[in-house]
Request: fold
Amino acid sequence: MKAFRRLARQQRAARLVDISTPTPKDNEVLLRVAYCGICGSDLHAWLNHKGYESVLPEVTFGHEFSGVVIELGSSVKDWMVGDRAVLIALQTHHDDNDPYCAIGLPQLSTRRRVQGLHLDGGMAEYVCVDEEFLLPIPEGLDLKTAAITEPLSVAEHCIGNRTSISSGDKVIVSGPGIIGLLCAISARSRGAEVIISGTERDEATRLSTARAIGFETLVVGPNKPSLTEQISAYFPEGATALVEASGAAHALADAWQSVRPNGTVTAVALYSRNIDLDITQFLRKQIDLRTSYASSRNDYLRALKLLQDGTVDTSLLTQCYPLLNTEQGFIDSENLEVTKVLVDCS
Ligand SMILES: [Zn+2]
Reply:
């Protein structure tokens, strides 16, 4: 089968290669992959960035995929050939004695692994997945839309569990990448009024996508008024919540300026450098500064429901590339020319 594989622990060292189709272990199913998204973490791993040292030197990328079951391991009970599924990407085998399993946050366990970084993923024609980490795609939801489940589950965990956003809240999402856009959609689905900010570099693709899906957008940059000044035209008292999804250090450092007292700031991005935070400014407004990491089963289930309800118009968010052009998908993602690449593996 064809697979887009990293071949060495080096920058851009991934190619489309021919490898043998995997055989499912007892507890695994073999899926024929339909679509697989390129995630920010795939991009970091492809570029061999700092912080991604744990990624295998040789591995098939891809953890955001949908597919159809075509073969079952000998002990698999709950799946049948022909079933459609997505997977939980960040995988921790359930253990009653693990405190993070007990509180429904298995993604925080040190036993976690990411399929597509620490074991072979789904940028391929076929992939094996442990049945423990499979979720059925609900009726009426197509395989292409379902491939967005993982990033949407990350947004659902952030907005649903790591903010207090509810109806009537005034929310700024900083950073119009796919996670920012999905956080904005998740906040809007809870009745919040949401504005998305980005830089001039985001204008051509990502901010125009944000407007196309119905959000007000603001551009911040050297020759522009500050975000705080721009926000005051919409939210004179400041925002009740800011979600930092850009990964820009100054966006998090300055977040306290745009948020009203007793508000929340939630960071859902990864930051490539240390950040100088004037915590006293956060403290004097009693701003609750939080982080949000990955997602767990319940977030996936809520994401699947939102997709099934049609809350997310994925046609405006995604662009398809055939498996043969996966490398181009990585290059275009790196250059911010697309919001979300879906690799068509069929
Ligand atoms: Zn992802």
